[in-house]
Amino acid sequence: MSKQLSINNLSSGYGRKNILKNANLVFEAGEFCALLGLNASGKTTLLKTICGLLKPAQGSCLYGDEDFLARNEKERARIVSYIPQRHSPMYGVSVLDVVMMGFNASLGFFMSPSPRDKEKADQMLNRFGLLAYRNTDFSSLSEGQKQMVILARTLLQNTPIMLLDEPDSALDFNNRHSMLEKVQSLIREENKIGLIAIHDPNFALAYCDRLILLLNGHITFDLKVANTSIEELTSCLAAIYGDISITQWKNQYIMMRNL
After folding, report:
1. CATH numbers and ranges of domains, the chain
2. Sequence-separated contacts (24+) of 64-70 with Cβ below 8 Å
3. Strand order in the sheet with 58-63
4. What H or E segment, with its residue span, contains residue 66?
5. Which pTM was predicted?
6. Over 90: is that where the pLDDT of 180 sits?
7. Which of 6, 10, 60, 139 has its CA 20 to 30 A from that of 54?
């Protein structure tokens, strides 16, 4: 049986101030779920807490029956991968070497990636149309290309839980669709759990199975897109985004702001 990710009464924040408050969620393998909300609603705080970058003020994160936040960083990295909004600057490092960092969690001390690992890295770069840049200095790429390289690295990390914090923010329209298609396909085919913070509800409606809506640090709605009426979607999204309407075209929901 596939393991669940269970978020139980989770509160977290910075200093003495909790941003995320009493979150309770369960995610099944094979689900691609969107976190939606305005700025400072708690999306990034939730993701950082699940991956262990923030220590929770209370609550737990269980994968199966285990609270994996009690593990050390390397052990957590075998369970949870995370793409942040902004990546650390890297200079003098090739694109191939950045992608192969995805193997770090599975390598022992003093071990290096194998020739087979390099082959897998090249295959992943080719999947994203970046193979021609394998020997290019990562710092010389455009921000959108860097984001795709970081995504390729994360996919090679091959964890059962994938957390993505606005990974599409630097991508153009076509690459945004391409990235979301690849992530959606991987999660479904390999039965992973995917949780993505995203600003545009239309991309969430197009690619995600569930919408988790946050307002002022609280989870206000948890909607399965396929099982939710257009009226309920409109009502719930309007509670976050204000005066909006939703139409349906070719089995696809589209949200528009009323003028």
Report:
1. 1-79+159-259 (3.40.50.300), 87-158 (no CATH)
2. 64/3, 64/4
3. 17-27, 5-14, 58-63, 66-67
4. strand 66-67
5. 0.91
6. yes
7. 139
